[in-house]
């Protein structure tokens, strides 16, 4: 992310809402970056399998009761043993499987002390990655979550235009979020969505419930899961002081000098990060923390090098 020059006056709302023109302009840097996780080749020109891809290049969609005429090589022995009858794995062509984004713009994301709100940074990340995936020939769709149900855009190729998806992100950033927190509803929808190649969840994951975590685990079993943890540097290491926080409706005063209050504040972020790392390791997902003051193009480009294939090259059964 380019830092604004000290002598430049920020435009009204800059860093608070994201502009559609800004998301469109991200294409200039995104398409010059290396191919993203889901499309990158391994050294020597070999193409990695995504989660759920078998040796014939087919995507695992789920299992159903065995029927006469089914290929015995497709028997799901784990499900068969569990249920006491034969089950057959179902597959679809890999190229039919899209990338689906969930961009959190709920109440906890409308916070920022560096550069921009977390919600704005999340939209910029999603826009950058959408251009990258599209440039690699992937179909891209998504949902922006403000705490209220919003239209979900089905995946489409770049030739059909990413404008509706980018507009969805921009419109959501300008919409007042609902007071009720949580990602239970949108993650449940993602967990029920069949035939995805990858699910990209961009959030601060504040107050992640057991139900929401269960949905993430389902997503990881069905496709390649990428968790991008957006946070503000203040949340990780706040300077000692007294701060008054206001969300437009309510306000709270925090005394973050040394003491139990500061320890609890810092521990909350550390616990969230550790929980996400543990979850990603357990389900073989990719986890990427990004601060609001990070250089996004450099950070996202470096992420692909740090994640050389863990998770996506393993077939599920």
Radius of gyration: 21 Å
What multimeric state do the chains show? single chain
The major sheet is characterized as:
6 strands, mixed
Q: Which spans have pLDDT < 50 for at least 5 consecutive residues?
A: 1-10, 37-57, 306-317
Instruction: Please state roughly what percent of the residues sit in beta strands, choosing from under 5%, 5-15%, 15-25%, 25-35%, 35-45% or over 45%.
Output: 15-25%
The general outline is globular
Order of helices and strands: HHEHEEHEEHHEHEHEEHEH
- End-to-end Cα distance, whole Å, is 40 Å
Helix segment count?
A: 10
What structural class results from the helix and strand content? Answer: alpha/beta
* Strands in their spatial order, largest beta sheet: 5-4-3-6-7-10
Number of strands: 10
Helical content stands at 25-40%
Quote the average pLDDT. 79
What do these coordinates show?
- The chain has 317 residues and is an alpha/beta fold.
- 34% of the residues lie in helices and 19% in strands.
- It contains 10 helices and 10 strands.
- The chain has helices at residues 20-25, 27-30, 77-83, 118-135, 163-174, 184-191, 210-222, 233-236, 260-283, 296-306; strands at 58-65, 87-93, 99-104, 140-145, 153-156, 198-203, 224-231, 242-246, 251-255, 286-291.
- The strands form 3 sheets. A 6-stranded mixed β-sheet has the order 5-4-3-6-7-10, with helices on both faces. The protein has a two-stranded antiparallel ribbon with strand order 1-2.
- Strand 6 (198-203), helix 7 (210-222) and strand 7 (224-231) form a beta-alpha-beta unit.
- Mean pLDDT is 79; it is low at 1-10, 37-57 and 306-317.
